[in-house]
Amino acid sequence: MGFDPKVVEAAGGVFTNNNTHELQVITEGGEDIIYYCDKCDWAENKEIFKGKVNEVCKKCKNGRIQEVKSIEVGNIFPFGTYYSELMRVYFTDKEGKKKPVWFGSYGIGSTRVMGAWVEVSHDDRGIIWNKAISPFDVHLIELPGGNGKKVYEDLKKEGVDVLWDDREVPAGEKFADSDLIGIPVRLVVSEKTKDKIERKERTSSKIKLLSLKEAVELL
Length: 219
Hints:
The protein is 20% helix and 35% strand. It has five helices and 15 strands. The strands form four sheets. Strands 1, 2, 3, 4, 5 and 8 form a six-stranded antiparallel sheet that branches. A hairpin with a 5-residue loop joins β6 and β7. The two termini are 17 Å apart. The relative contact order is 0.12.
């Protein structure tokens, strides 16, 4: 998805007596506090952390412990055989012995993922989605003289997910809204572009004039 998460050990809560692992994204807008080593992959949630900031890492004996705010976007709960024994979920091993299946829960919060991405990927104009989690592939802006409907339909035929802005508002407002929404690629059709399409990436100021085929190939 584009994140650089920390795998953080945390308490199991009501789900398990074992520790769990959370996938935490570091951001000042986070509601959690985690501690991690600046040299290795050790990390713990504040709930179970017993040390002090800047002390030597107890795992690698080299790094220093840092404190940061973060957002949990996923978690892994090891259940062992507790639930499989209750539900009588068994398998037969290669020796013919009947054994309970080991259970685990792998969770991801879709709304948390979106919120976390906005926190870590934006500028003063708005959101900057990446291709993996953007709600659309392209943002199509139709200006006077542009055949937006045909381009929209042609893009849909090519399997492209399109947000089509055909509102009768000034071009500047459309461009500002496009930056605010933050879809990775902006396409513009107008009297000026004629039978071509103006392409611009959200993270770049460069504009290219392309054919529909060329625009699709770059997605």
